[in-house]
Amino acid sequence: MKKPKELLEKLEAEFVKSANKERAKQQQWYMKSQMPYFGVVMPEVKKITKKVLKEYAPENNQEYRDMLLYIFENAKYRELWYAGLVYADRFKAYITEKNIDVYEKIVRITNWWDIVDHVAQNLIGKALLGSKQVRKYAKKWILDDDLWIRRTALILQLKYKDKTDFQLFKELILQVTHEKDFFIRKAIGWALRSYSYTEPEKVICFIEQNKDKLSTLSVREGLKVLTRNGFF
Fold it and tell me: Residue 174 and residue 195: Cα distance in Å, rounded?
């Protein structure tokens, strides 16, 4: 079994070579991050990570899980979290429902949109596509005390298009329309906007029926594409 600690140390050593202190300060400020940056831009993060990962392909699901959790629990710089996402994405055979608990834990550890939105769409969303368990997870998460878990429930179907369970999505939205948090309101609008490409009339109808409950931000975001395309 490949050692998670060894992988993390090797990634860190490679990022140090490309570090830029001035850029690191700007990145940390922009992301409002308590965790420092090396100052490595994302294309370089991906390039470095993919190169290192050639030696660290997981041999089984348990190794995939162990590697991911170790990275996210022990990273001291934010680019190492980004490397963790590259790792999670790269080994697609392991993006399955078996690993939903690991992805959920990553959301709870990171608690910010740059990681959470990727995990929700590209890991949790992909793992649950076509699963009968989507409802179970989403309805549990929308009641969670952690707003990033609630946001995950709202946006995990973002790429589902005609496979979206819109009835479920409507139920989830109506459970959090009272919330004033920007990231919840934005998630509602974002998901409505995404689905409006597939079913514009359904989105319009839902917004019209619930415009007294939805925030201005959610409505504006939800109708953005439809307004641009002349529906109004």
Answer: 16
